[in-house]
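Researcher: Here's a chain I'd like modeled. Treat it as a single chain, no partners, no ligands.
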Amino acid sequence: MDADPAAPTLYPLGLKLVGLRVLVVGAGAVATRRVPALLDAGAEVVVVAPAATPALRALAGAGRVAWHERPFRPSDVDGAWLVQVAVDDPVAADEVSAAARERRVFCVRADDRHAASAWTPAVTRHGPVTVAVLGGGDPKRSVAVRDGIREHLMASHETAAEPARGTVALVGGGPGDPELITVRGRRLLAAADVVVVDRLAPGLLLDEMGPDTELVDASKIPYGPARAQEEINAILVDRAKRGRFVVRLKGGDPYLFGRGGEEALACAAAGVPVTVVPGVTSALAAPAAADIPVTHRGVAHELVVVSGHLPPGHPDSLVDWAALGRLNGTVCVLMGLKNLPRIAAALIDGGRPPTSPAAVVAEATTKEQRVVRATLRTVAAAAADVPPPAVVVIGDVVSVLAALFEEESAADQA
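Model: Modeled as a single isolated chain. C-alpha cells:
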C-alpha cells in the first residue's frame, strides 16, 4: 500500500457540530451510513434528495433530520457549516462542490476525494475515545489501521474512562456464552472494584477480573429469597458508600426477572448513583440458539414472556394463565421447569391446543446446551430430567425451522 502521490497533507481536526447545520446531498446507502454519526455529534442535519432509503425516511418521519424531497439547489448550502456529498453523479457532485467553495464551506465528497475540500476518516469509538484514521488517500489502509486499533482498544480497557467511584452498575451478562455480554458491560466489569455475582451470570467472565477485585458470590448468601435480596442490596450500598465502583453482574438482562429494579431502588434510596447496562435475555437468546424464532411472519404476531417460579393457582402468582391459554402467539416461560406440568395443564385448560409445539432449551448458548422438543401435552414428561436453568417455548414457532434441525440431525447421523 504505497501512499497516493496525489494525496495532500491533511490537517486533522475534530468538529463540534452541536446545533450547527450540516447539509447532506443524496439519500442513498452512503448517506445512510454518514447521517447517524452526524446526528450523534448533535448536528442539525438537512438532507436534499429526490428519493431516500427507508432508514433516512424513518429519521425524517421522526423529525430527526429535515428532508427536502427534490434536487439540489446552490442556495441549500447557505447557512451550512459542513456539506456531505453522497451522490454517484460526478456532474451533480461538482455542482455541490462549487456551491460550497463559493460560500467557503468545507465539502466532503463520497465520489471523488480529490475534488473534495475535506475527507472523512475511518473511525472507531471506545468509551470516550474516538480514533480517526486518514490513510493517505487509501481507504483500505485507513480501515485496516482503524480495525487494528479497535482490536487493541477492545483487548485493553486502559483507554476507557474510569467509572465514578461510589457508584453501582447493574450489568446484564447475557444468557450464558461470555461473548454475548455487551462491549460496555465487559468494559465496566474490567474496571470494577467489587463484583457481586449470582449463579446465572456467565462464569467465564469472572476469569477476566483483576487480582484485586473483590468477588461477592450472591448465590451463597445463607437466607431465603427475600432476605437474600435484602443482603445483596445492603452489599451494593455498603461497597459503594466506601467509595468503590461496584458491578452487579447478572444473568440475562437486569430488568427481566432479574430483580434489578429492586436493587436500583435500594441504591437510589441510599443516594447511590446507578448505571444500568442491558443484557441479552435468555427469553429471546435461548429460543434463537435452538433455531426457534419467537416471532415469524404469518405464524406469531405476539410474544409473552412469563415467570413460572410460582405454579398456576398460587395465591401470590400475578400470571393469568387462562388468558395465556387463549393466545395464539408465542409463550416463553422462565424459571418454570419445576412447575411445568401444572403450567402446561393450565394453558390447555385455558384453550391452548394440547398438540401445540413446545420446546425446552437448557444451558442455552453454552457447550452444555440441550434442547427437548415435544407438544404442550408431553413437554413436562419429556423434559423431566432436564436441569435448570431452562427456557420453555410454546407455540407454532417451535416448528417453523423444523426442516433446519432435521437436516442437522440427519447430517450428524450420516
